[in-house]
Amino acid sequence: MRAAPLSLFLSLFALFIVTACATKPKAPPQAESSRPAPTVNEGADKGNIEEAVAAAPDAQASTITTRRLGFSPTSAIVKNTLDILLGVGSRSSAQSWRVDIEDAGKGGGATIRTFSGGGSDIPDYVRWDGKDDAGALAAQGSYRAKLTVDYGKAYRTAVVESGSFSLVTSPPTGSIAIDPPSASLSALGPASPVDIAVRASSPSARIASWVLEVYDESKGLVIVLNGDWPNDRVAWDGKTLEGRTLVPGSRYSIVAKVRDEYGNVGNLAVLDEGSWKKFFED
To answer: For residue range 216-236, what is the model confidence (pLDDT) as tens digits?
Structure first.
């Protein structure tokens, strides 16, 4: 058998080398590195929300005022409630509202009464009857009203306060003075009139008016005299409602009913005080 030529041997060797390289197993692809799932930073999110709220624009200005500087919930003469007027800015964007009536006295700040509602039912005013949320009459003192309007994300929450106002239930106090002090009512006449002064005061309200009534021993009304403050005195010549003169030697009693600006009335008595107290008791 003839030996294969050298050139054929070299060709076969080269083919073997090429085939071996082409069939070399490939390394398996490396697995993708596992990355931890992103986590939510709750603190950062809360801060972002607060920043967003803080960045919200201000709504149009809101106001809260009262029709009067005070009232008496126990008055039977003048209005015994207080209207608190609400002016809500950017009303169409309001989500809710609340009015808190707070104690404005020393060491105060406690909420006494609350009114609230949604953005679709904002009233022009709320009316306070002087009672707390439990229905009990609030104590005499100084109060203020606070309006809070929530606009959601549209605007920043608005908070405004009214000026202080008074709730007054105590009647005026004082006395009646006769000038001259030694005057006898039964001896009065055109030539010897008496000057009657009403001395009244109230720590929480202005005095508005007074009515003086004179009664005889049989509890009959003799005369009615009246005036508006600051006029606090009247001269009386002893003439009765019928134009008659007083009966000499008779005993008479005088009472003054003094009213403050909120309708509280105080009774002041003079002269025959013992008989007058009995007159009331009878």
So the answer is: 888 899 999 999 999 999 999
The residue among 86, 42, 94 whose CA lies nearest residue 67 is: 86
Flag whether 43 is in a domain: no
Report for 35-49, 107-121, 154-168, 190-204: range of highest mean pLDDT: 154-168
Residues 6+ apart with CB under 8 A from 187: 238, 246, 248
pTM of the model: 0.71
Tally of domains within the chain: 2
- In this structure, are 135 and 106 located in the same domain? yes
| Run of H or E residues at 280 | helix 273-281
Strands 165-167 vs 70-71: parallel, antiparallel or unpaired = parallel
- At residue 56, the pLDDT reads 84
What residue numbers bound the domain in which 229 lies? Answer: 173-281
**pLDDT tens-place string over residues 99-116:** 999 999 876 789 999 999
* Mean pLDDT score, 204-217: 93
> Among the residues of the chain, which ranges form H helices?
6-22, 42-55, 273-281
Of 123, 143, 167, which marks where a domain is finished? 167
In the block, tokens 């006769």 appear at 178
Distance from C-alpha of 83 to C-alpha of 100, rounded to nearest angstrom: 14
Residues 185 and 251 in one domain: yes
* C-alpha dist (Å) from residue 40 to 43, 44, 48, 49: 9, 8, 12, 14
Phi, psi at residue 67, to the nearest 5°? Answer: -70, -30
Identify whether 112 is part of a domain. Answer: yes
Same domain, 244 and 268: yes
